Amino acid sequence: MQRALQRLSSETFDVLIVGGGATGCFTARDAGMRGLKVALVEARDFASATSAHNSKLAHGGLRYLRNFEFGLVRESLRERRGLMRIAPHLVRPLPFLLPLNGARTMERLKLSAGLTLYDLLSYDRNRGITEHLPGHRWINRRDTAAREPVLAGAALEGAFEYYDAQMYAPERIALENLIDADAHGAAIANYVCADQLLLKGGGIEGAMVHDVMTGAVFDIRARTVLVAAGPWADLFLERATGHKAAHKLIRSKGIHLLVPQISTAALTIEAGDGHLFALPWRGHTLLATTDTPFTGDPATVAVTEADIEGLLAMFRRYLPLAGLTRDKVEFFYAGLRPLVSDGAKDSYNVSRRSELVDHTSEGMRGVFSALGGKWTTSRQLAQTVTDALVKTLGAKAAPCATATTPLPGGRFDRFDELTRGFQKTYPGIGSMRSMAHMLGARLPLALKGAKMTELVSLNQSGDTMAQVLLALREEMALTLEDMVMRRTGIGQFGPASADVISKVAGVMAAQLGWNAEKTQREIEGLNKLYQVAAA
After folding, report:
1. Cα separation of 165 and 96, whole Å?
2. Is the pTM value of this prediction over 0.70?
3. Is the pLDDT of residue 290 over 90?
4. Could you tell me which residues come within 8 angstroms of residue 80 by beta carbon, excluding any fewer than 6 positions away?
């Protein structure tokens, strides 16, 4: 997969997708598989904003039951199963414990009823997948404390256990959708920014774009355009058309903190009117999350010291035995949830539903916007989008098959068997399981011709130089940040060592023609990822 700049500037497409996050990537795959001629551009790197900066969960939305959003919960549970089916290397079962403190009989009954309904709505949760998700159960006080000592305390009554799923690397799911879209003929490029929609006679003709890397400006011709720009969607339409957006988004800021692992199960902690989550992830714990309105430029969202201390203070209050102090924070990040306003009093209670907007009535025939939603339901939103595109184009298209067709890395039966097979064929490689998680069935592409020195884990992420080389050859990695934050996880556990970063930058410089000055800028550019913002 390479940047298709020549095709983008010279061909006419059925659909141009503006935005390379989860929704855009799923749509590119769906539309390509159905026979549409697809173009996709992303102003930065694929899955570099909201689609990366999240809680890494594929979940049904247990708390949505409180707002009687049964349809959304059912859709989310069905799509959770779908993600486990098409990306079994990247989406895995995750047990949750929901502890109760104090003798709260009514609260326990209410939660039991909610979890029973959650199980009923996920009646088909184990259909077509190889990893089993049990129903919920109650665990008594003694067994809860023995299993997770961090929950022990005089007030502990016990805990409910239930299951959802976790994404090993959400950025890789987005990327594999694009790899498959590319295989079905899509023309794709990162670092291409759409500046203006080309409208004529009330209809769309494409977009004027520029290559961020070179500054070159050109037009992309397309019969329809999908705006899948996440928290930028309404702002992009106003900038690209000069008209006030009829559909406004609410942007909610959520921060996450990475700390040493404090539990083996995920913990759902009731905290006043909301919830806190302590999520085991790749040998660490991800503390999630805040939910505060954000009104600034989405590109400026960042974590402040006050954000960190505020989230830690809540965890210290509700999970005191975890001993969470500022020095335990290994990494942090902030993301924006693009929410469709539904009249809720605060962003926490705004629905996570999605909406597809047809802008024909605004004088933009053939222009659509995909608004809201969440990672878990992105594939379904893409199916809805593609159905609308096919209808608008009057095209003869194959039925949607993305719910059951594995992604390129997911084309195997059982993950443990896949990993054992690789370990037998390539003995003595300690990084094999981590690489299998990241690449799945695509792992031989990295192993073929690799030297043993290129298969040694570079740091605690478990990633290797063989993966770096593959990302340069076939995964459109153009910057050092692309490489260490999205093609691999080298930089996702705090700053990697100078030696590791120098090695990766050196390989990229040799492949991409960077001079010494450019290489140093790329290295220094990583510093911003680990710095708190001014309050």
Report:
1. 10
2. yes
3. no
4. 58, 59, 60, 91, 122, 125, 164, 165, 376
